[in-house]
């Protein structure tokens, strides 16, 4: 399911750790392959093109496995005034249960904090217990639901939000979670390469 891509130009990073980078236009064919494998129905390629070129609020991160230039996962958020709204987190099915989703969520939080967002919110399928547990670990808590939110099967969405991303308590939580990721993936850079304002 991988799409051939040019080798990564990120030479200074540890080849034994997953690589996190801000998404570029060149990543779109691989991102679309991940999207198709992870979700049915997924977004059309034009949606990602618009997100990267026309949506000033959008920030997307890609993850490449250790020693690979292939995209195994991606995640995105919108910067909305003082709130980061997580719009997607996706990992190839064959690359799940390796900590990549956790690394992507961590990277999104780093992006949100870099842009001085006060909180983060998201919607998650009510049946997706694994994702809900991952988000809870990052300080998200359930604040409501959206009935019949998902168009493919009319499943309800659980709305989750965080405490203040800039607070000392959240900072301590993020540092602990970052240390766990650094132990699991020695050499990982948790702030995505290419993070911009």
Describe this structure in words.
By secondary structure, the protein is of the alpha+beta class. It has a single domain (19-184), classed as Gcn5-related N-acetyltransferase (GNAT) (Aminopeptidase, 3-Layer(aba) Sandwich), CATH 3.40.630. Helix content is 31%, strand content 23%. The chain has five helices and seven strands, in the order βααβββαβαββα. A seven-stranded mixed sheet has the order 1-2-3-4-5-7-6. Strand 3 (73-80) and strand 4 form a beta hairpin. It is globular. The N and C termini lie far apart (33 Å). The model is unreliable at 1-12 (pLDDT under 50).
Task: Throw out a few tags for this protein.
197 residues, alpha+beta, Aminopeptidase, 23% strand
Question: How many independent structural domains?
Answer: 1
Structural class determined from secondary elements: alpha+beta
- In DSSP terms (H or I, runs of 4 or more residues), the helix count works out at 5
In terms of DSSP E residues, the strand content is: 15-25%
Topology:
Blueprint: E1 19-22, H1 28-38, H2 45-53, E2 58-64, E3 73-80, E4 83-91, H3 100-114, E5 119-125, H4 129-137, E6 141-146, E7 157-161, H5 168-184
Parallel strand pairs: 4-5
Antiparallel strand pairs: 1-2, 2-3, 3-4, 5-7, 6-7
Please summarize what this structure is.
The chain is α+β, with helices and mostly antiparallel strands and 197 residues long. The protein has five helices and seven strands, in the order βααβββαβαββα.
């Amino acid at each position: 399911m991988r799409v051939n891509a040019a080798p990564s130009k990120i030479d200074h990073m540890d080849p034994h750790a997953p690589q996190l980078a801000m998404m570029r236009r060149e990543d779109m064919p691989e991102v679309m392959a991940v999207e198709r494998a992870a979700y049915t129905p997924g977004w059309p390629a034009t949606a990602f093109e618009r997100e990267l070129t026309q949506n000033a609020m959008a920030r997307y991160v890609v993850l490449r496995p250790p020693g690979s230039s292939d995209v195994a996962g991606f995640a995105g958020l919108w910067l909305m005034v003082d709130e980061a709204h997580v719009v997607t987190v996706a990992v190839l099915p064959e690359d799940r249960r390796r900590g990549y989703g956790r690394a992507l969520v961590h990277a999104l939080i780093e992006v949100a904090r870099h842009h001085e967002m006060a909180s983060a919110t998201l919607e998650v399928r009510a049946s997706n217990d694994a994702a809900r547990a991952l988000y809870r670990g990052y300080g998200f808590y359930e604040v409501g639901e959206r009935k019949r939110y998902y168009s493919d099967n009319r499943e309800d969405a659980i709305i989750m939000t965080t405490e203040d991303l800039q607070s000392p308590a959240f900072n301590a939580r993020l540092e602990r979670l970052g240390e766990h990721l650094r132990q699991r993936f020695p050499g990982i850079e948790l702030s995505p390469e290419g993070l911009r304002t």
